[in-house]
């Protein structure tokens, strides 16, 4: 697991989400305490082993793909969390 890369992607994701809070799907993520805790843990390199983040299905069912910068960073974040590279 590349903790430094995960931290960078998590920072980029948080920044992208904060700049696109007008999207209902982005707002959903910003209000999801479990998700935001995962982002913060990644930023501070507190995630030490791969985890199943639990939002893979939501990514497919939501319209988050219409918010390109958030969607790209979210996909990278997901892959790094589960221990894959992007």
Gyration radius over CA: 12 Å
Residue-averaged pLDDT, rounded?
94
Helix- and strand-based class? mainly alpha
Q: Please summarize the sheet with the most strands.
A: none
Q: How large is the share of residues in beta strands?
A: under 5%
Q: How many angstroms separate the termini? A: 12 Å
How many helical elements?
5
Task: Reconstruct the topology from this structure.
Elements: H1 3-19, H2 24-31, H3 33-43, H4 56-61, H5 68-81
Keywords:
single chain; 86 residues; mainly alpha; 5 helices; globular
Walk me through this protein's architecture.
There is one protein chain. The protein has five helices and no strands. It is an all-alpha fold and 86 residues long. The protein has one domain (3-81). Helix 1 (3-19) crosses helix 3 and helix 1 (3-19) runs antiparallel to helix 5 (68-81). The chain is globular. The mean pLDDT is 94.
Provide a short characterization of the protein structure:
The chain has 86 residues and is mostly helical.
